[in-house]
Amino acid sequence: xxxxxxxxxxxxxxxxxxxxxxxxxxxxxxxxxxxxxxxxxxxxxxxxxxxxxxxxxxxxxxxxxxxxxxxxxxxxxxxxxxxxxxxxxxxxxxxxxxxxxxxxxxxxxxxxxxxxxxxxxxxxxxxxxxxxxxxxxxxxxxxxxxxxxxxxxxxxxxxxxxxxxxxxxxxxxxxxxxxxxxxxxxxxxxxxxxxxxxxxxxxxxxxxxxxxxxxxxxxxxxxxxxxxxxxxxxxxxxxxxxxxxxxxxxxxxxxxxxxxxxxxxxxxxxxxxxxxxxxxxxxxxxxxxxxxxxxxxxxxxxxxxxxxxxxxxxxxxxxxxxxxxxxxxxxxxxxxxxxxxxxxxxxxxxx
Length: 351
Fold this sequence. Notes:
351 residues, alpha/beta, 3 domains, six-stranded parallel beta sheet, DNA_polIII_delta, DNA-directed DNA polymerase, DNA polymerase III subunit delta, DNA_pol3_delt_C
């Protein structure tokens, strides 16, 4: 069974049996540490109510003493306490040696052992591995912990606020999402602080004006998505945060160049074939197609070529004069790509 982190309690742990029956194994996946740790804590809390009073945690690395883990499984007697074993697997690849140890562990598990395994980045290759198939089967619940995207973040904020008794008006929720997108830990801490400051009071955007600070966290791909959708204000906000985090501009340039080259190729085929066939040819995922559709509607082949040429000039500039105001130029290019007005070469040349 696969559940998202918010479903773990509502659809499983808080439910009566058989739906809410505690499983012997839980696999928690994802890199959003706040959600991973809260999911693990929810499982631990429920397990303790069922007699699992001992808890041992292990961070798996090359020098891990596996015998100490195995001994915990073998050392139980009639009068022993039931035990929870938490294992954090490495974010990098799982070596053959670790895989063999996990297979051995799978043979030692029994009803008085509850196993929680944290796996940051599951892949198809891992799911098809011998150790994965040996360890995880029908008696396992997989908990998926992903950072809410921009479209779902307001729902996450609203749900979390209600859980802690915090009342937020819609505009206040939007303000929180703007200032803390991509930084769930800081957002969660702010919600907790607000619940202490505004007990039994509706929190408005005006209340937040002098409290919030911009702690949003973005990647280059958030910037690309904003450009594809023509979201000028959002693209500038993302650049502002990336600059604050001292992100390398050359990485942004290269990332955008890759997207523009692909879009130029797609644009060149629009007069010859339908857009769905083009997306199929370039293997564009279904959840990405609306981004490219918006961009290809707005930007012509010539406009895309001009933007690509300007990025090349910007790359030359950054290599010859690192003190140049690259971020200002990136802002200009962002605004022009997002604009519905025709782009002209003279507008995009970096001075």
